[in-house]
Specification:
CATH architecture of the largest domain: 3-Layer(aba) Sandwich
Shape: globular
Strand order of the largest sheet: 3-2-1-4-5-7-6
Largest sheet: 7 strands, mixed
Strand content: 5-15%
Order of helices and strands: HEHEHEHEHHHHHHHEHEHE
Number of domains: 2
Radius of gyration: 20 Å
Bound molecules: S-adenosyl-L-homocysteine
CATH superfamily of the largest domain: Vaccinia Virus protein VP39
CATH class of the largest domain: Alpha Beta
CATH topology of the largest domain: Rossmann fold
């Protein structure tokens, strides 16, 4: 089961109120969604989005008891504006993004997200995506592989890894998460492998970002979301690595400086991180950074 990261902090920054309309752009297994619904009842409404149809089944079951207050959409969060239009809602009170993967996705062998569970090298978050990680790993040229692993993985050994992948491919395709993890592990000098962190972590992150266009989606969705908030409406974003956090930070900064007087106020000067106690309980919260802001256009 997925343990939500900083749910109380998120609900606080979203300023959840009874009767308000909220959007959870990444409903996953519904942990944050449940907290939001509880805070906004009676009369609140939650629009719950996830691009992964499989994970949505879990969210649906979890939120069954609140059916009258929840609408679920199997979509990319880049479609938020269209979704609200369909519902004839022009603006909402709060929007949450809790990025990354849900535990369900990570643990599902058939998805190939984790090097710990050897499965096909897929990594697609949605069936609408045509090219899997296997396609990229076996068809990108060495230069592009290096670029992807360096940029999206921030992996200092990208060049060696790209070279090793291309050499391995020469003897047949790399078809499983386990096979790729092994190629990457061997490409990194033994003395430089880190204790506790699998050497393939960054390469897997890079491929996931590429397959799902994760940074592109975030770059498009954040400005759109800000335009869909009421006066005093809140946005809250939880990210899990520095590339995502940088996008959130920059979009927030741009919007807070764009107008005079400002139409957007940053509520978190520094990103909020999980407490030691939470990290102990839920290791996934270790890398989480939460940023929030408020629209002011009354
Ligand atoms: N807050 C959730 C966990 C979210 S995990 C909970 O408490 O249970 C992140 C989820 O975001 C995953 O289910 C993933 O499928 C979804 N996701 C990632 N990128 C997305 C996008 N561009 N559009 C819609 N959903 C996305």
């Amino acid at each position: 089961m997925h343990v939500p990261v900083m749910p109380d902090v998120a609900v606080k920054y979203l300023d959840c109120r009874p009767g308000g309309i909220y959007v959870d752009c990444t409903v996953g297994e519904g942990g944050h969604a449940e907290s939001i619904i509880k805070e906004t009842s009676p009369g609140g409404a939650l629009i719950a989005i996830d691009r992964d149809a499989g994970v949505l089944e879990i969210a649906r079951a979890k939120l069954e008891g609140y059916k009258r207050n929840v609408r679920v959409f199997n979509s990319n969060f880049t479609e938020l504006k269209e979704i609200l239009k369909e519902l004839k809602i022009s603006k909402v009170d709060g929007i949450l993004f809790d990025l990354g993967l849900s535990t369900f996705q990570l643990e599902d062998r058939s998805r190939g997200f984790s090097f710990k569970n050897d499965g096909p090298l897929d990594m697609r978050m949605s069936e609408n995506i045509s090219k899997s990680a296997e396609y990229y790993v076996n068809s990108l040229d060495e230069r592009r592989l290096n670029e992807v692993i360096l940029q999206y993985g921030e992996e200092r050994w990208a060049k060696r890894i790209a070279g090793a992948i291309v050499r391995k491919r020469g003897n047949g395709e790399i078809k499983t998460a386990g096979a790729l993890a092994e190629v990457v592990r061997k490409a990194i000098p033994k003395s430089k492998r880190k204790w506790r962190i699998h050497p393939a972590t960054r390469t897997f992150q890079a491929l996931r970002i590429l397959v799902n266009d994760e940074l592109g989606a975030l770059e498009r969705a954040l400005p759109a979301a800000l335009g869909l908030l009421k006066d005093k409406g809140r946005i809250c974003v939880i990210s899990f690595h520095s590339l995502e956090d940088r996008i959130v930070k920059n979009v927030f900064r741009d919007y807070s400086k764009r107008n005079e007087p400002p139409l957007f106020r940053i509520l978190t000067k520094k990103p909020v991180v999980a407490s030691d106690e939470e990290i102990e309980r839920n290791p996934r919260s270790r890398s989480a950074k939460l940023r929030a802001g408020e629209v002011i256009n009354g």
